[in-house]
Write a structure and sequence with these properties.
mainly alpha
């Protein structure tokens, strides 16, 4: 197998960031949805259910990326 050209993104690192990026984007969509006029209560309920599972995951991943000091 030939080596990848210089400047090629690290495939393993890219893969590690796909799920957190997707979870963060989904979370942001729910946060924006609560500001939409139609059916705010349904958006709020969905966001609260998502927060139960997504927030601990995102907090953990953010802690991994936090500068060590």
């Amino acid at each position: 197998m030939l080596p990848l050209p210089l400047g090629t993104p690290d495939a393993e690192r890219s893969h590690e960031r796909q799920m957190p990026t997707a979870a963060n984007a989904l979370w942001e969509a729910f946060l924006q949805g609560q500001n939409l006029p139609p059916d705010k209560d349904a958006w709020r309920a969905a966001a609260q259910k998502l927060e139960t599972n997504a927030k601990p995951l995102l907090d953990f991943l953010r802690a991994l990326d936090a500068p060590k000091g």
